[in-house]
Write a structure and sequence with these properties.
Elements lengths: L2 H23 L1 H29 L8 H18 L6 H29 L4 H20 L6 H22 L9
Helix pairs in contact: 1-2, 1-6, 2-3, 2-6, 4-5, 5-6
Length: about 180
């Protein structure tokens, strides 16, 4: 990771933590902000994946996968942008699915990294456990109106901390001989 990427990751983590604190203090505005953050994040990620396919992936084996995932993620972002009028329980179920799936993927990646002898598998495992905990808390507090905001803030704050940790973590270079 270059110095510019480290600085960007650190300030992104700070911004995420500040947004989590703001949404905790103002939960009514936080719900709309959650919808905006989720939809913009997914749409930007989908567009980046499609651009990656157009510029590089078209010439690679298996590059079409980035096109398909980009279209799917862009569609998911557009769907999320339309969730502002639905009851909050649906957004809570949406967060439940995202966190449980993300936690499961992180835990499986951590187990693979452990088998391969990678050094940072514990950090990924803890990230997966926290995501599953957040997903289960969505299920437990499904009946409370403002629980969407607080659960999302918890996840956003944790991800901000992890971004800042990644900014200071030493990256290993692999040399091929």
């Amino acid at each position: 990771m270059s110095k510019t990427q480290r600085i960007s990751s650190f300030f992104t983590g700070l911004l995420m933590m500040a947004a989590a604190v703001f949404m905790t203090v103002y939960p009514e505005e936080g719900y709309i902000l959650i919808i905006v953050i989720l939809s913009l994040g997914l749409m930007i990620r989908g567009i980046r994946s499609i651009i990656y396919y157009i510029t590089m992936g078209i010439h690679m084996v298996g590059g079409r996968r980035s096109l398909y995932s980009g279209i799917l993620i862009l569609d998911l972002g557009l769907f999320t942008a339309n969730l502002s009028d639905v009851p909050r329980i649906y957004v809570l179920l949406y967060l439940l699915g995202i966190h449980l799936f993300s936690g499961l993927v992180d835990m499986l990646n951590a187990m693979d990294e452990r088998k391969l002898g990678a050094g940072h598998w514990r950090l990924k495992l803890s990230s997966g456990i926290v995501n599953i905990f957040i997903g289960l808390s969505c299920l437990i507090f499904i009946r409370y109106a403002n629980s969407v905001v607080y659960i999302y803030c918890l996840g956003l704050f944790y991800n901000g901390i992890m971004k800042m940790v990644d900014a200071f973590r030493k990256t290993s270079m692999v040399y091929i001989q």
